[in-house]
Amino acid sequence: MEKKKSVKNVAICFSGKVKHLDLCFPYIKKNLLNHLGTYDIFCCAEDDKDLEKLKLLKPLKIEKVKSFDVDRLIKPEIKSIDKQNYKTLIFPESFRFNIRNIYQQLYKINKSFQLLEDHMKKENVSYNYFIRIRFDMLPINTIDPRKFKFKQGEIVVPKIINLKIKDQINDMFCITKDFESFKDYCFLYKNFRQTVQEKVSIKPSFFQGIYFLLEKFYRSFFIYFLKTINKKQIKFLRQILGVILLFPNLFYEDFKERKRCNLERVLFYYLISKNKIIKRKPMDFVIVRAFDDGLLIFG
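Above: the chain sequence. Below: its structure as C-alpha cells.
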C-alpha cells in the first residue's frame, strides 16, 4: 500500500568534511535552520574522527565515505582531464585547488542528493525548498527561503562582490524551489568532464601552447616534490609551495583568468546548458577551514 503523500518545507543536503561543524552549527541553527519550519537533513560526510559531530544536525540520512574509496572511482575521470590540462583547458593546480578535490566534492554532493531522492520515493514525501550547503559554512546573517521569489528553473546562489568574470557562480551554497533544478545542480559530478570539453575548452596559439606545457611541468614537479618530502603535512612547506606556484601567474594572467577551468565556471555553464536561471543574492558567510585560515564571503 502506497504511503500517504506528505509535504515538508525544506530538504537540506550537507556534504564534505565535518571538520569544523561544531564551530559553524550555532550560526547554521540561528541564521538558517530556525527559519525553515519543517525540514529534513541529508548528509554525505567523510568518515573520519570528526564524524560524531554530525549528531548536532540530527540528520535523517547519512552516507559515510572514505576519500581513498572515492579516489578509485574518480581516477579515470581525473586522468582523462589531466591529459587535456594546458592543452585544451586551463586549470592551474595547487594542494587545495586541484581536479581531484573538485571530483571529491562533487561526488559527495551527488551522494547527499541521492539520499534525498531515495527518501522522497520511499516515503512519498515532497519539499517546498531544496538547499545545498557545506559543513564548514558559517552564515553571518539570516537566510530565509521565503524571502526569495522563485521562478520555475531558478536557483539562488550567493552573490560575489566585485566579481569581474561574469560566467562564474559561487558553488558553496544554493537554494531552489524546483526539485529538477536541484537534481541538475547536484548532478554536475556525472557531467563535469563533458561540460569542460563542450563549454570551457580553449584553443591556445602556438606560443601559448609551448608556454602552457612548460607551466604544467613546472607546477607538477613542485607539487610532486613537496608532497613527497611533506609526509607530515607541515604547513610551512605548503606555504613555500604556494609562493613557488605564484610565479607562473605572471604570464598570460588575463587569458588564464578569463578561460580558467575552475568549478565556479564549469558549474555556471552546466546550469545554463540545462536552461536554469541563476539568481545571485547577497549572503554574508564564512567558510571555516582552520583557526588561522578561513574564507570570508560578503554578498
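The domain at 6-74+99-200+262-297 is CATH 3.90.550 (Spore Coat Polysaccharide Biosynthesis Protein SpsA; Chain A).
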